[in-house]
Amino acid sequence: MEGIMVSVATGAMNSLLDKLTMLLGKEFRLHNGVKRDIAFLKDELSCINALLEKLANMEVLDLQMKVWRKQVREMAYDIEDCIDDYMRRPDRQRSSGVIGFFRVYVQKVKELVGRHGVAQQIKELKDRIVEVKHRRKRYKLDSEVDRGTNNVLSIDPRLPALYVESSDLVGIDIPRDQLINMLDDGEPSLKVISIAGLGGLGKTTLANEAYKKISWLFDCKAFVSVSQKPDVKKILQIILSQVKNQDCTNTETGDENQLINSLRGFLKNKRYFIVIDDIWNTQAWKTIKCALIENTCGSRILVTTRIVTIAKSCCSPHHATVNELRPLNEADSISLFYKRIFGSEDLCPSNLKDVATEIIKKCGGLPLAIITMASLMTTKLDSREEWVSVCNSIGLGLQNYRVEEIERILSLSYNDLPYHLKTCLLYLSMYPEDYKVDMFQLVRRWIAEGFVKVESGRSLVDEGKSYFNELINRSLIQPVSIGLDGQATACRVHDMILDLIVSKAVEENFITPIGDPMQTLVSQEKVRRLSIDYRAPEAVMSRSSLIFSHARSLSVFGYSEKMLSISNFQALRVLDLESSVKLQNCYLQNIGDLFQLRYLRIAASSITRLPEQIGELQYLETLDLRRTWIRKLPASIVKLRRLIFLLVNGLQLPEGVRNLQFLEELSGVSMYNECSKDSLQELGSLTNLRTLRLTWHISDSRSDRAAYTDILASSLGKLVSSRLRFLCIVRWPGSADIPLDSWSSPPHLLRELYVPGCCFQRIPEWMTSMANLYRLSIRVKQVTQEILHILGALPALLDLELRSEAADEPMEMLSFCNSQFRCMKIFRLYGPIMGLMFEDGAIPELEALSIEIRACQVQSAFAGHPDLGIHHLTSLRDLNVWINCGGAILQEVEVLEVAISDAVNLISNHPKLYFHRDNQEEMVKDDTIMPCN
């Protein structure tokens, strides 16, 4: 893909060339001599850039060429920084200063071209390739760098099976069952079990499979990752949140001792199951273990680690519970390799089988290596020669399980990437180990850095998603939380791949990570992108030899009293602050100096306000304040005319919002009683919006509520008839109802509509034409057969939440036939209904069902023998049944539960069944006759 603005291959060269072209335009009235110098720069740098793009496809460069390439890239960065500084000050003298500046750089380019003439370098490259012709087969020297990666890609359909479905994982059954037997052995005392083994052997996968299988047997559960530099306080908060099944990150404050005491108190009399994944040192384990109280309820702790001595320490003195994970055997390795590429061994072309056998052998039974190699080979299915070439490149293999050899295999997949994807992958080294990287945040950062170029008329976000999906397809990042639409919403980077990309990013002076005590940086270069991890108390912060003023990106994790001032970072495009409660508002006081800033994310609850200077950031595209305690935006926010993403947490819709015409996402705004009608009306002018999330607080008791609701409904109608794809409205209790059924134009592009607080008297006409809608949550006066008929005809609907409001309305028996909801996977039906019946073939793709049933009415409707037809839901995996016990006798409730249980037992894939009894205090005794209304 040509023309990417910034990349690891060409640095800022393309961006620089664009700016040189701009300087030659009429807007900048420069002297002819200056224009000639700029034109010379542009011409020479264009030639040099062409060579850089050729070098990007070469995997082996001699030292001289590496040094030359490095000089050129650094020079391009420096020239662009100077141009940015010049263009920022249009009022300064544009004569001697700019002439002197360009003459200096013209001379530098002449010297570079003189020492390393482009034509001569290309000739030397050709001569070297001829002399080492045999290496030409091993390394693909192709000047085409996009190689078909410009199409929007969906998630590889085989990936969910590899990461989620145990039936499709290879070699997992026996170790999983053995592990489950160890965990569920009936022993009442607390037991700690460890899984130990090399990175990439599948310790986390095995632990997760056991967790999914048996966690339902325990009163409470948690799965948490630790990593090399653990934030123990955060880990304890996560465990507490999961065992309580609620967010405790804000409610449970205090030091580690307080969190330990809270956990011990909560777990004291409960049977719990905790997985502690990836422990690297005994100190972290000792602290976490303090919180996991010993009891006689049959509780279990499962630990994974790469270090056997730590595994034994965790289980001490019961070393028999240490489970040392082994590589896959030959049969399972073969099965995994072929499953990943072809679906099965039988589908492998005969001319590739001998090469495949050799590749599998060299992977040494390591699942990570096998999956990575398989992902690489899927792009080379038509050429035996390429398979042989890759096989020969692997080297000595993994017989001794040396990490260097695994990295060599992973490097093959890295080298096979087009350079725009190499850039995006290396950028992930900005994040700490085991960090859950949000896909949308990552794509926005890529865009701000200039890594993404629009192709085929798509938006930058859609193009960035395509890059993200391609990295998943190549198994270079691991998908997290794959949604109903097949899109992963986040990813993690495997430790070994992270090691690889960090080393390459540092080598290329692309990323400079600071804070890892295991990593020594000897570079004395200008830092281009900086990631600082202050969280580890022993973090190494030696930075005396590094120059930060030219950094394009700064990520800060944690807090230090010696934090670098943002005033030192004049060239920043990206600023991401993920800190603790200690970060002060004054840290942002000079934010207006960051003239080039495109992306600003603040994740620090101690930040309570933004300075008015924020309005000076004229290039700002993303402002993410969701994890702050900012409750009011400064008035200058509406000056950010290039803002595309405004993400806040309960902030009032700003006055003058109509100025933000570039906005594509507006999330977290609230409409309180103080909200002006003008701002609501202005909302309708943001016709570029694709995503809108808002909270509605306008009170129903206001005399002018109708004016507010009509204006909002009108504004929303304009948005859904424009480009809106996602609409979420949270209506607070006591707020005025919004007449969404008044929309005149059908929202053809809307894909998600979440408005459970807005009650529809009937299904509006516009909803019947929503061909793209795949997620819907609405409230109606009463669920009727007619409503099911209308919604059941929506062709793309995957997720439906339907709430019935009126308990005093006449109710009818609901029937689901085989012609409705043909692709729906999740269905939640809440509210009073007489009963429901699923016919044979109904909702064939349904995987999760939640329903609310009134026991006495169902008993009456089925004449004492309830048969809901649940056994016809052949794809069902999870069933939640809320039984309203009001007016029913105990026997009616029990008969209903037995009938549903029997029906579920008839489904071949054995769905999980959960019963919840409501209003048990309103049950009647068996000898009491009470009519059921």
UniProtKB/TrEMBL annotation:
Residues 12-97 form the Disease resistance N-terminal domain. GO terms for molecular function: ADP binding. It holds the Pfam family Rx_N. The keyword Transmembrane does not apply. Keywords: Coiled coil, Leucine-rich repeat, Nucleotide-binding, Plant defense, Repeat. Gene3D superfamilies: 1.20.5.4130, Helical domain of apoptotic protease-activating factors, P-loop containing nucleotide triphosphate hydrolases, Ribonuclease Inhibitor, Winged helix-like DNA-binding domain superfamily/Winged helix DNA-binding domain. Belongs to the disease resistance NB-LRR family. This is NB-ARC domain-containing protein. It comes from Panicum hallii var. hallii.
